[in-house]
Amino acid sequence: MSSPLAADLASAGVAAGTPVALAIGQATLGLAWPGGSRSVATPHPHDAAEAVAAVEELGPRWVWWSARTTAYDLVGSGVRPRACWDLGAVGRLLHGLGRDDEGAVWAAQAGLDLPHPSDGGMTLLDLDGESDDAVRRDGQLSREWLRGRWAEDAGATVRWAELALDLQRRQEDAVRSLPDLRSAPGPTPLPYLTALSESMAALLCVELEVDGLPVDRAVLEGMLEQTVGPRPQTDAEEAASRRARDEVVWRAFGGDEVDLRNPATVREMLVRRGIDVPDTRSWRLEPYAAGSPGVAALLAWRKAERVATTYGWGWLARDVGDDDRLRGVWGAAEGAGRMTATAGLHSLPAELRPAIRPKPGNVLVRADLGQVEPRVLAAVSGDRALAAAAREDDMYSPVAAALRSDRPTAKVAVLAAMYGQTSGTAGAALKDMDRAYATAMAYLRGAEERGRQFQDLRTYGGRLLRLSDWAQADVDAAAGTTRAHSFGRFARNAVVQGAAAELFKAWAATVRAGLTGTGARIVLCLHDELLVETPVSEAAAVVGIVERSLQSTASWWASGSGVRFVTDTTVADSWADAKT
DNA sequence: TCGGTCACGTA
DNA sequence: CGTACGTGACCGAG
Questions:
Q1: Rounded CA gap, A11 and A469, in Å?
Q2: Which residues of A43-52 are buried (b: 16+ CB within 10 A; e: fewer)?
């Protein structure tokens, strides 16, 4: 044992897989594990990371209130924990919370009302039950402690870790009591496995924030100059550049200097020219582009304007660091459970992707799941016929055969079923879907029905989707029906999208673990796509890790369903080149 | 200064 | 009257 701390914990029974709660106070680190707890003095900022790294050698499962609050600095110091239990992430999973602060997660598990999001203030009401202890008489966590009292001395920090461990136990019990919805349930319940991968996803989010996405600054600057003009040095230059872009469109419309950024004035101008459209969305104007140079110029302007505003010089200055890494804030599970990211990381236009390039000596490995949502539907619904189709590389071919349609129609029908579309060309094919894939369709309809009634539901992996909060009594009948149908469509889609997100995160967590020791890192997660930056020498190994990880993940996640999951994996020098 | 609307990028 | 999310410009109410 290389450190006295690790030796002490080992002798106290901490071994691989033991939950060890961690709280990092101002000058102390609090640790708690089943049967014991202790503090570690950490007078210098780096001491905490060193202590954690020492204990990490035992292979514990770190328990923390959230990776964001506890692990951010550790990750920044280069510590990459192997396993964790994120109380915030599991709290979101179990209770469908839209927040993961300690007070909310604690209250939700205790069955108490959620405390008001703490913004530092304290009202007289909050004093109710307040005491010196971390837990108030009414069962809520103390406001004082939530505001930072826990970090002030060794005793409090250890207490905070003990509370975390206590909550972890209760969360684990709750997770294990959820049903395992797999076709062939295993000894470890699926919701428990989901809790682990959701926890790892929360940690991965912190890593993605710290590591950033590699950008080739010269390439990106060249593109911006092309599209929106040179980097403005002053407000006047900025305005001039704006006007220069606008003038191109004005000229194409014969000198009509309308405010292009105001849809109403744009529409009026189009009407004056005999183009009567209900709104000015691009897809609606597209048909007129061939016959009208003005419309064509307007559409080109819109594309450039998008880059200029959202992905322009301001974005480069704000979100790309001096180290040429693009950084945003990552969320592990929003809405139905997908990961989110700010700074445009999830909506980077395809034309800018050539600027996403690895640092020298590295390459990008891009892997994306093929037809993941229909495969997920087959797995979570247990539809044997759809699962049989999902054994093929291209599952729309057998679906087309079953529907006696062509492939495009089959694809539209499957997507329409998952999105809740009822009209249009897909309408007829949906009847055939009902016949061919009755189990899957019944699953979707069941979710939709619950949604319409504003009833809560859970995804395959156990995520609670709270709809009951949104039920409203006092709306008129017509608006109420529209709203109910909208919730129905949301629910229909959320059970598929949410389950796909769970599979994705489980896969990502497995890949992350597999990459240990390769020098490679996940640098982007995009719903069904992983981007890994790896030393050139490891590229082939990383491809193998990514693909084997999917198979090992699918083998437990879709156990018994017979569904196959496929990935397209490529190696390239830029995100754009890593094409299928 | 805020919420609502429009618009549009990604999956 | 096909889902989700994040972003920015503009508008009108406060």
A1: 48
A2: eeeeebbbbb
Mean pLDDT throughout A557-577? 96
pTM attached to this predicted model: 0.96
CA–CA gap between residue A206 and residue A66 (Å, rounded)? 10
Of A13 and A45, more confident: A13
Q: Which of residues 270-289 of A touch strand B (CB under 7 A)?
A: 279-283
CA of A380 to C1' of B5 (A): 37
Within a 10 A sphere around the Cβ of A72, how many other Cβ atoms?
Answer: 16
d(CA A355, CA A208): 18
Residue keyed to tokens 């004005």: A250
Q: A82-132: per-residue pLDDT in tens?
A: 999 999 999 999 999 999 999 999 999 999 999 987 654 555 555 556 678
* Structure confidence by residue, pLDDT tens digits, A72-93: 999 999 999 999 999 999 999 9
Per DSSP, the three-state class of A366 is: strand
CA distance to A305, A308, A313, A314, per residue, from A233 (Å): 19, 15, 10, 11
> DSSP class of residue A395?
T
Quick check: A349 CB within 7 A of strand B? Answer: yes
- What are the structural domains of chain A? 4-177 (3.30.420), 217-317 (1.20.1060), 328-372+502-578 (3.30.70.370), 377-499 (1.10.150)
- Whether A526 CB is under 7 Å from strand B: yes
Q: Name the residue with tokens 């809790």.
A: A195
* CB environment A271-298: b (16+ within 10 A), e (fewer): eeeebeeeebeeeebeebbeebebbbbb
How distant, in Å, are the alpha carbons of A241, A337, A465, A476 from that of A493?
43, 12, 12, 26
CB A284 within 8 A of CB A277: yes
Spatial distance between the Cα atoms of A304 and A301, rounded to a whole number of angstroms: 5
The tens digit of pLDDT for each residue in A19-62 reads: 999 999 999 999 999 999 999 999 998 999 999 999 999 999 99
- Rounded Cα–Cα distance for residues A168 and A320 (Å): 37
User: How far is residue A519's CA from residue A541's CA, in Å, rounded to a whole number?
Assistant: 11
If 0-12 CB within 10 Å is exposed, 13-18 middle and 19+ buried, where does residue A63 land? buried
Smallest CA–C1' separation from A373, nucleotide: B11
Distance between the alpha carbon (CA) of A313 and the C1' atom of C8, Å: 14
Report CA-CA distances (Å) from A349 to A73, A306, A344, A345, A576.
Answer: 32, 9, 9, 10, 10
- Which residue intervals of A422-476 are DSSP H helices? 426-436, 438-452
Token pair for A347: 């909506």
Which of chain C's bases lie under 7 Å from a protein CB? 1-11
Instruction: List pLDDT tens digits, range A286-302.
Output: 999 999 999 999 999 99
For residue A227, what are the contacts with CB-CB under 8 A and spacing of at least 6?
Answer: A304, A307, A308
